[in-house]
Amino acid sequence: MSFSDPIADMLTRIRNALAHRAKSVDVLNSRVCRGIAAVLRDEGYIASFETVEDARQGLIRIKLKYGPRGEPALHTLVRRSKPGCRVYAGVEELPRPLQGLGIFVVSTSRGVMSDRKCRTERVGGELLCTIE
Fold it and tell me: Are 64 and 22 in contact (CB under 8 A)?
């Protein structure tokens, strides 16, 4: 089965797993999806992730994170740049979701990173998704 947008597929799988209070979720393995998972781990939205080998391209197993009362650490996952309409922003135009409480995941020439790290390294790029 071929997907035209593996990033949207990853975000949808995470949203569905959070709705069902799953402990982990498997998503398709790609360099961009691994970068997004690393940003989510570094920012504290997921517990951890690991790559699992299979007969095809492999999977990324993401361990989801919940609060002490069972509330998910992730509330909103929204895809911004889509295959039909790419969205780019320079370092000066990077938005601040929830006035700094959320993050944008940005694909830059230096790899996938959060908007906070983009501001410190003074680099812009494609706005992949919003995490709140």
Answer: yes
pLDDT of 99 reads 87
Q: Are strands 46-52 and 24-28 parallel, antiparallel or unpaired?
A: unpaired
Tokens of 113: 């990173």
pTM for the predicted model, two decimal places: 0.93
Nearest CA among 100, 30, 29 for reference residue 61: 29
- Distance from C-alpha of 56 to C-alpha of 73, rounded to nearest angstrom: 31
Cβ neighbourhood burial of 118 (10 Å; 0-12, 13-18, 19+)? buried
Q: Which amino acid, residue 58?
A: G
- Average pLDDT across the chain, whole number: 94
Closest by CA to 115, choosing from 72, 65, 126, 48, is: 126
